[in-house]
Amino acid sequence: MFKKLFALALAASLLVLAGCHSENRDLTGFSGNSGDTSDTAPIASGEKLSFTTTDINGKTVSLEDFSGAEVIMFNMWEPWCGPCREELPDLQKLYAKYGAEGLMIVGVYSDTDGLKETVQSNGIQYPMIKSCAAFNRFNTGYVPTTVFTDGEGNVLSDEAYIGSKSYEEWESVILSYLHQ
Predict the structure, then answer these.
(1) Distance (Å, rounded) from C-alpha 73 to C-alpha 76?
(2) Is the Cβ–Cβ distance between 69 and 177 less than 8 Å?
(3) pLDDT score recorded for residue 4
(4) Contact between residue 113 and residue 80 where contact means Cβ atoms under 8 Å apart
(5) Could you read off the pLDDT of 117-157 as tens digits, one per residue?
(6) Handedness of CA 114, 118, 124, 125 (dihedral sign)
(7) CB 121 within 8 A of CB 2
């Protein structure tokens, strides 16, 4: 009995560490079934991201709205994803700490159920935008998935980051891109 409970607890822990995956949810821009639960997934560095979509309040936004940033961290997440919600306060702290140094964090969502409540309850001040077709190229089938670009939309890495990370882990990644 103990072994079964331990195995179940271990499996649940691995799911939380890897991020959320669902074949039954509409993850427009995020859906798929890659089966990859590693920390990164291949993407094409140097590829250029360009989009026009709406923010959490329905205002039209595009990449050009963030062009003053040195580095843009696009964090694709969903309100129903526990690991996504857990990292929001750390992302807000990083935004507050490194925003003046050129970091822009942009939350990208597709599911609006519970979105505004989650953003407000976590005191999130960075922009939240609705996913659109331009983000499909970063489809890993998991959230959170995070991609870094420069202010002109050029993808900075050959890999997307899959799963939530601690403040210290994200800080290390962010600092590797800032002021390169």
Answers:
(1) 9
(2) no
(3) 43
(4) yes
(5) 999 999 999 999 999 999 998 989 999 999 999 999 999 98
(6) positive
(7) no
Q: In this structure, which amino acid lies at residue 7?
A: A
Query: How does DSSP classify residue 178?
Result: T
Do 69 and 100 meet the contact criterion of CB atoms below 8 Å apart? Answer: no
The domains of the chain, with CATH numbers, are 2-177 (3.40.30.10)
DSSP assignments along 29-83, one per residue: TT-------SSEEE--TT-B---EEEBTTS-EEEGGGGTT-SEEEEEE--TT-HH
3-class SS of residue 139: coil
Q: Which two tokens stand for residue 40?
A: 């990164």
- Cis amide linkage into residue 42, ω under 30° from 0: no
Question: Phi, psi (5° rounding) for residue 175?
Answer: -65, -25
